[in-house]
Amino acid sequence: MLDSVVAAETPEGILLELRPAGISARCCAYLIDQLIRIAIMYAAAFILMFFGGLGWAFWAILSFLLEWFYPVVFELGRNGATPGKRAMGLKVVMDNGLPITPAASLTRNLLRVADFLPMMFGAAIVSVLLRADSKRLGDLAAATLVVYLPRPAPKATLDMVTPVAPVRALSPRDQSALIALAARAPTLTVERLDELAAMAASVQGESRQPEAEVTRRVLGVAQWLLGRRT
Amino acid sequence: MTPLHFENLYRAEWDELESQLTLILDGRTRQKHGLEPIRGERVAELYRRACEHLALARARDYPRYLLDRLESLTSDAHQVIYQRREFGLSRLKRLFAQDFPRAVRAHSTYVWIATAITVVPMLLMGWLVYERPDLILSVLDADSAAEYEAMYSDSAETLGNISGAESRWQMFGFYIKHNIGLSFQFYAAGLFAGIGSIFFMLLNAVVSGALAGYLTERGLSESFYSFVVTHAAFELTALVLTGAAGLRLGHSLIAPGRLTRVQSLTQAARESIVMVYGIFVMLLIAAAIEAFWSSARWMPLPLKYSVAAVCWLGVLAYLAFQGRRAD
């Protein structure tokens, strides 16, 4: 499998699938957050400029809060992600799949300093590239994981195809493959769709049919697997 | 049992769980308005049933749509049921009434080592510079040494004699940004086998010790010590505790014991971060004292020293005794 899925087991003995985000998505998220922070700092500096020494004091406190607590506040919020992570479709969770705790969020964000060393996030880059679950040092210490938000499955219902019951039991992987084919069907050329459907011809039982009919019946099996019965 | 039969048999339970989950996620407002009540026990029971159904459906290779529904249902319920709420005032109260001082005592070995790493070089350097003032140049360049000397001298607008609310607020902002940020860095640097924390502690101790020795030798001891002694109760203690927390991180990696290194690090971080909460508040107090109290030089010295004594005793007694009953 090329997918880097981390399975988290719950006490009830079921497996939750988490998809750790790799280095490029996380870099982009970080850059977006950094730009937002810089923009806020400049805007604040522009306004607080008019308040002299007192303004400077508040600017210093604001920059302190932005530097250390900007990620913490957002990660503990409803989305579990900073605006940058949200834009990249990412989220921070505990590595057992639960929402992040305040202590873990603070830990991973304080230890970002260690990740930055020796320069330009060197330690973080090495750690993320070496580990299958793409944790940086802060994630290791806090037991957190940056994961992709679950993507809504592509729509695979095809209204004009009548459902067909499969003639043999299908493993979950085979079922997923058929449903994925149905989801892609509208974007494929007829010839390519026939070619692909022919590989799965055995699921629908009827042999010696014209190609278009086989395709229709294979897609029909996919509809049946999606729960349609009529 | 066919998948369809299975689904018809249990669908009602899944629908009930789903509607309870939406109720919970919608927040408490709906509950207040007397709409369907949330029944926690029932949710837990339905969740366990759904987990069972999912395991069965997987083992029997049921169609994908059934697995998908059960997977999303159980994972949503899992998030709701195991969510931990750690906010609120009662949690904060427990943190400072028990958790923080207890965490400090639980790390007492690290705290003593950090104290030694800070105090011994500080006294040694202070004594050396007092005996041979030109040694100050080994840690500071001549310009900054002169600057510090001017700062604590009796004349002019000095650190120990700041007038005006504006500049006090300015100092307050600076201390927060600088001191607290630095302390967070000390802690994180401990991750590298503790070397980072030791380095920062030594650096801090040597420079401040040298400065104290130099200023004492110059005859500025009165204005220097009356300035630093009060907030040092919080600042110096907090820096020692930061070093201790950093040493804990580093030690967990060097000697993980019966755990893997990652497990050991996770445990060390979970236990030492409690100290960081307390350190943060101590440094806030230190910044406020340094900006608004230490800087008031018109205050009579006996008053300043008695307040300082109260602060020191208070901090040490708090760390040593608060929350003992729960130990």
What does this structure look like?
The complex is a heterodimer of chains A (230) and B (327). Chain A is mainly alpha-helical and 230 residues long. Chain A has 2 domains: 6-148, no CATH class; 172-225, no CATH class. Chain A has helices at residues 23-48, 52-75, 83-87, 102-110, 112-116, 122-130, 137-142, 172-184, 190-199, 211-225; strands spanning 6-9, 15-18, 90-94, 144-148. In chain A, the strands form 2 sheets. Chain A has a two-stranded antiparallel sheet with strand order 1-2. The longest helix of chain A is centred in the first third of the chain and has 26 residues, at 23-48. The mean pLDDT of chain A is 89. Chain B is mainly alpha-helical and 327 residues long. Chain B has 2 domains: 3-81; 89-326, no CATH class. Chain B is built from 12 helices and no strands. The two termini of chain B are 56 Å apart. Chains A and B meet through α2, α4, α5, α7 and α8 of A and α3, α4, α8 and α11 of B.
Comma- or semicolon-separated keywords:
heterodimer; A: 230 residues; mainly alpha; 2 domains; two-stranded antiparallel sheet; 4 strands; B: 327 residues; elongated
Number of strands of chain A: 4
Question: What is the molecular shape of chain B?
Answer: elongated
Q: Which quaternary structure do these chains form?
A: heterodimer
- Poorly predicted regions of chain B: none
pLDDT average of chain B, as an integer?
87
Briefly note the structural class of the backbone of chain A: mainly alpha
